[in-house]
Amino acid sequence: MDYEKSYGRYSEFFEKGLAQLFLTLSDVPEPLLSAMKYSLEAGGKRIRPVLLLSACDIFGGDLQNALPFAVAVELIHTYSLIHDDLPCMDDDDLRRGMPTNHKVFGEGMATLAGDALLNLAYEHILSHIRKNPSEGNLSAALEIAAAAGCLGMVAGQSVDLYSENNPSAGERELEFIHAHKTGKLICASLVAGAYAAGAGEEEIELLRKFGEGLGVLFQITDDILDMVGSYEQLGKSVGKDGKQNKLTYPRLYGLEKSRRMAEEKAEQILEVLSCLQKEAKFLRGTVFKVLNRNK
Amino acid sequence: MDYEKSYGRYSEFFEKGLAQLFLTLSDVPEPLLSAMKYSLEAGGKRIRPVLLLSACDIFGGDLQNALPFAVAVELIHTYSLIHDDLPCMDDDDLRRGMPTNHKVFGEGMATLAGDALLNLAYEHILSHIRKNPSEGNLSAALEIAAAAGCLGMVAGQSVDLYSENNPSAGERELEFIHAHKTGKLICASLVAGAYAAGAGEEEIELLRKFGEGLGVLFQITDDILDMVGSYEQLGKSVGKDGKQNKLTYPRLYGLEKSRRMAEEKAEQILEVLSCLQKEAKFLRGTVFKVLNRNK
């Protein structure tokens, strides 16, 4: 299948970039280095870097120039998982069937490994930009930073944490959490890839609209998967506390309505994609892939 | 006194820059925003931003252009303190006489506040650089990122954490910890200020040498203060676990030899400063100030 082939090509390209970066890090003291690598190599699907590279491809950009950004978004995503799993956050012992970072390296080292990955993302980006200070690259970097920070992903995590034991949290909080915790970085990956390719503002805005919708779609289907259970579920993290109180789409709207919401969202963003007037087969495939993981 | 006056001028300038940044953050959800502000406003001496601005001044640079970097180093320093104080790290209840971040906001929110401050540092820098993408600014940014990361500050924190209950840790570890945990960011502040001012490579290298020495001097005198106790001590953080095992200069070399080491280091870096052939009164004053806080 075409979609799988493209996915494989992008993710292989990303893995090479990631491995190359770590060649420069052999002086990082142990066990910090192992803790950083552990979570990066724990079987993530590389969705964000793949989206970033595919967006760059759509606009005929140089994938090599987009690569440091692709590596950076995965570093940021991974740091957020490590910190999310900590006992003071979601308190997860397992992620994708493997012991979480702090279960292997201890809480202190896991905290530092997360910090190190976040910082590394920016060090890697800045090192690339110093050599290639194009306007597109600078915009790509800023897009990622804004999406990851206190008005983006961390904002979402904080509201998630704060709502966990807050009975008054409802629809508004759920939407905020997902738009920020998951949506922002997914959307920024697409937009950053387009910026790195030198796309124009109009195209960027269409891609941003698509990315926002894709983030929501991801979350609805993820919530449904979590509730329904699936073969994937076996490998998913299982929280000990608070998970019962976590806001999810099926819990708030019921399973059937959640499924309908996912379908509507998919239709909506496929339409946005057609406005782009570019060959965007891979992104089209992504929408169907995400939608159908429920089935 | 001249030194105090300059310190006041630089730190006031920095405070304005910090306040201005936070004006743009009113949409950050509570209690995340309060947690971020709490530690930033907890009475830090602003040593790093002041050094950065003074280094920019030495080379006749535009302080306004250096300001975002000054803000960034303080954001990074503050995040590292919040994470250092967590129960899984140093487990400190107090810092500068006030309850630590996690004592007020809980461990999860404190972790997120640290993450948010680290990310904000880069978002702020990148936003500035997109408007002013000079080579000096890009080098300043990279200098800070390299100093903060897994080959810099976080490396030092990780060895510190790992050595705490490791009886074989000695002189080599102590030097590594201090050079990285404290030294790197202090040195990077000076170098970044010089880069932002457009200083040449030769001048940068001299300042780097000075900065490395100043970092060591800071640490020796800090360790001595910690052991001897002082009026400042009352407001310092007091760890609950592991502190007995912490490597310090006086514990390793004795008090008298540590004092002599501090004096020798001060002499050495004053000499480096004279090679600079620039009016560097403030940095000269800083050396004496740091040396004499033991007395």
Account of the 3D structure:
The structure is a homodimer of 295-residue chains. Chain A has 295 residues and is an all-alpha fold. Chain A has a single domain (2-292), classed as Farnesyl Diphosphate Synthase. Chain A has helices spanning 2-23, 32-40, 47-58, 63-85, 101-105, 107-131, 135-148, 153-163, 171-196, 201-228, 249-253, 255-275, 281-292; strands at residues 94-95, 98-99. In chain A, α3 crosses α9. The model of chain A is unreliable at 230-242 (pLDDT under 50). At the A-B interface, α2, α4, α6, α7 and α8 of A face α2, α4, α6, α7 and α8 of B.
Total strands of chain A: the figure is 2
Task: Provide the succession of SSEs of chain A.
Answer: HHHHEEHHHHHHHHH
Instruction: Record the strand order, biggest sheet of chain A.
Output: 1-2
Largest interface, chains and sizes: A-B, 53 and 53 residues
Cα shape of chain A: globular
Fraction in beta strands of chain A: under 5%
| CATH architecture title of chain A | Orthogonal Bundle
**Low confidence ranges of chain A:** 230-242
Q: Please give the CATH class of chain A.
A: Mainly Alpha
